[in-house]
């Protein structure tokens, strides 16, 4: 991937540039790096979330082209992040409320000790070669994302573990002996980071031919022409765009702010949908007290919008 930012094509034009990034590296000084990184982001008008841990960096940020370029240049000037790669997309409005640089035990939480993608990891597969791999009858395709993500889009023929969080994935693998029925395992996730640990874990479990999509779904949707795509649906993203589609166009989904489930335009028409209060997925799981509390929060959000402000609870 080029280190310089390219001029976006007309199909992906948007006022804000969104950069998704991660890098596994030994980073013992991660705690002392938090404040300088926060300052650089603030000075350049960049918002989003970046996670720092002993094992590296992970996150998504958004801002002007110049602001994102400045933050990426600052990161790549660090000896640990000289080979940092990122993926770009566009947003018509700022997709984050604030800038957060957080310290974590893991940059992606799997909860398994001694999983190090720098030591052992699956074989990377470029987006242009992905279709051939997953179309091979000898390949078992596994989606490593969570259930609310897979609900709106998957690769054809993929196995969906239906996990609530990535922490559940190791037990799902251990409890599914049927995963050994095919010689090849092909794994994918949104931007590639979960597969770094997922493929490392699979290798540790004795699976030999383990592959993963380099750059994740986002890179595939960016590079593979729609007429050749084996992706069905939209890809969930962790910002206010909610989803993106082929060519990284903004999707039609919105988010239920009560349960955080993505909603289709059709689901917004459900009698169970009340903005900020409930949706078809969570209405039955909420009490009257819950709904009244959410209604009050939504009232505050509406008032903030009328004042031209953004309510932090939104």
TrEMBL record:
Keyword Oxidoreductase belongs to the record:
yes
Alphabetized SUPFAM superfamilies for the sequence: Rhodanese/Cell cycle control phosphatase
Known role: Catalyzes oxygen-dependent 5-hydroxyuridine (ho5U) modification at position 34 in tRNAs.
Gene field: trhO
Is the Oxidoreductase keyword given for this protein?
yes
Q: Organism's domain of life?
A: Bacteria
Annotated family: Belongs to the TrhO family.
Q: Which organism is it from?
A: Sinorhizobium kostiense
Q: What is its EC number?
A: 1.14.-.-
Q: Which keywords does this Swiss-Prot/TrEMBL entry list?
A: Oxidoreductase, tRNA processing
HAMAP family the record matches: TrhO
PANTHER family on file: RHODANESE-LIKE DOMAIN-CONTAINING PROTEIN 7-RELATED, THIOSULFATE SULFURTRANSFERASE/RHODANESE-LIKE DOMAIN-CONTAINING PROTEIN 2
* Upper taxonomic lineage: Bacteria, Pseudomonadati, Pseudomonadota, Alphaproteobacteria, Hyphomicrobiales
Residues in Rhodanese domain copies: 135-229
- Note the NCBIfam families from the entry: PRK00142.1-4
Instruction: Give me the reactions it catalyses.
Output: uridine(34) in tRNA + AH2 + O2 = 5-hydroxyuridine(34) in tRNA + A + H2O
Q: Protein name, please?
A: tRNA uridine(34) hydroxylase
Entries under InterPro entries matching the protein = Rhodanese-like_dom, Rhodanese-like_dom_sf, TrhO, TRHO_N
């Amino acid at each position: 991937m080029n280190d310089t930012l390219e001029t976006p094509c007309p199909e992906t034009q948007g006022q804000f540039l969104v950069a998704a990034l991660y890098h596994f590296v030994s980073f013992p000084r991660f705690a002392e790096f938090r404040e300088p990184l926060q300052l650089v982001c603030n000075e350049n008008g960049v918002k989003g979330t970046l996670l720092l841990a002993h094992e590296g960096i992970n996150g998504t940020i958004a801002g002007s082209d110049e602001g994102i370029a400045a933050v990426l240049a600052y990161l790549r000037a660090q000896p640990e992040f000289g080979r940092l790669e990122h993926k770009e997309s566009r947003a018509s409005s700022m997709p984050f409320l604030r800038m957060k640089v957080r310290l974590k035990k893991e940059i992606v939480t799997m909860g398994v000790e001694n999983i190090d993608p720098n030591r052992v990891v699956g074989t990377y597969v470029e987006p242009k070669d992905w279709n051939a791999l997953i179309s091979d009858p000898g390949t078992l395709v596994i989606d490593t994302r969570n259930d609310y993500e897979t609900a709106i889009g998957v690769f054809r023929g993929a196995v969906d573990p239906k996990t609530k969080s990535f922490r559940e994935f190791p037990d799902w693998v251990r409890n599914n002996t049927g995963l050994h029925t095919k010689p090849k395992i092909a794994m994918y996730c949104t931007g590639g980071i979960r597969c770094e640990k997922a493929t490392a874990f699979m290798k540790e479990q004795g699976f030999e031919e383990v592959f993963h999509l380099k750059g994740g779904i986002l890179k595939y949707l960016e590079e593979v022409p729609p007429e050749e795509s084996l992706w069905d649906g939209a890809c969930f993203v962790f910002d206010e765009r909610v989803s993106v589609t082929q060519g990284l166009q903004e999707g039609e989904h919105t988010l239920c702010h009560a349960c955080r489930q993505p909603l289709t335009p059709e689901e917004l028409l459900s009698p169970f949908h009340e903005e900020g209060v409930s949706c078809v997925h969570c209405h039955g799981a909420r009490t009257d007290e819950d709904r009244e509390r959410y209604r009050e929060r939504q009232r505050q959000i509406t008032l903030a919008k009328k004042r031209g402000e953004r309510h932090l609870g939104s």
